[in-house]
Amino acid sequence: MRLRNVKGAKEKIEGDDYTIKLPNEKKGIWKDVFGNDNPIHIEIGMGKGKFIMELAKKNPNINYIGIEKYSSVLVRALEKRPELEQDNLYFIRMDAEDLNEVFEEEEVARIYLNFSDPWPKERHAKRRLTSVQFLERYNKCLDQDGLIIFKTDNRELFDFSLEQVELAGWNLENVTYDLHHSEYAEGNVMTEYEEKFSKEGKPINRMVIRRKR
Ligand code: SAM
């Protein structure tokens, strides 16, 4: 994704009440941040936040955390955050590589990965968010029934992910190569990238991955 530097983004994030500045300090006590025991669902690489905002609005009894690596992107989500008049959505600016420093074992119930960067070069395979290295990180913070829902237009990344899931010994469910024309289409919430790609006529791949026990 090409990034344009947004002037003042860091300052806006610094002053925002819904962005957690020192997320490592919340490890193991995320329930206190939300003030309830509701399950925690996270989106990694949320971009401008359309998807997670919509989910948070639809599901007030679920706590959401949107994770984004770049300030210039996160700031766009912050601009939209006031539209959600609920307290069940927070943001973190961080690299998902550090996930285990931020979430305790079994603290997360669900992880969404939407249109993750493909990192096409083989030497960068470890950076793909569905690599076995990342699945290991997710395994540490997901609860016993935890699952990951992954959508992408990129067939190579999708096929790579299927292999990685098998290698890691996780379980696959509801795999589709054309989500919008499948039995799982109903209730699907579209992301920004998903809207763009489906307008171009590209099929959307989706899999559900259940944590190994
Ligand atoms: N999920 C959004 C959507 O579907 O519209 C955005 C997709 S965009 C291609 C991928 C996003 O993931 C970018 O905003 C990028 O900055 C973020 N990202 C990539 N690697 C990341 C990482 N390791 N940790 C956190 N965010 C990451």
TrEMBL record:
S-adenosyl-L-methionine binds at residues 43, 68, 95, 117. This is tRNA (guanine-N(7)-)-methyltransferase. Catalyzes the formation of N(7)-methylguanine at position 46 (m7G46) in tRNA. The gene is trmB. SUPFAM superfamilies: S-adenosyl-L-methionine-dependent methyltransferases. It catalyses: guanosine(46) in tRNA + S-adenosyl-L-methionine = N(7)-methylguanosine(46) in tRNA + S-adenosyl-L-homocysteine. The lineage of its organism: Bacteria, Bacillati, Bacillota, Clostridia, Lachnospirales. Pathway: tRNA modification; N(7)-methylguanine-tRNA biosynthesis. It is an enzyme of class 2 (transferase). GO terms for cellular component: tRNA methyltransferase complex. GO terms for molecular function: tRNA (guanine(46)-N7)-methyltransferase activity. It comes from Velocimicrobium porci. Its EC number is 2.1.1.33. It holds the Pfam family Methyltransf_4. InterPro entries: SAM-dependent_MTases_sf, tRNA_(Gua-N-7)_MeTrfase_Trmb, tRNA_methyltr_TrmB_bact. Substrate binds at residues 121, 153, 191-194. Keywords: Methyltransferase, S-adenosyl-L-methionine, Transferase, tRNA processing. Transmembrane segments: none annotated. Belongs to the class I-like SAM-binding methyltransferase superfamily. TrmB family.
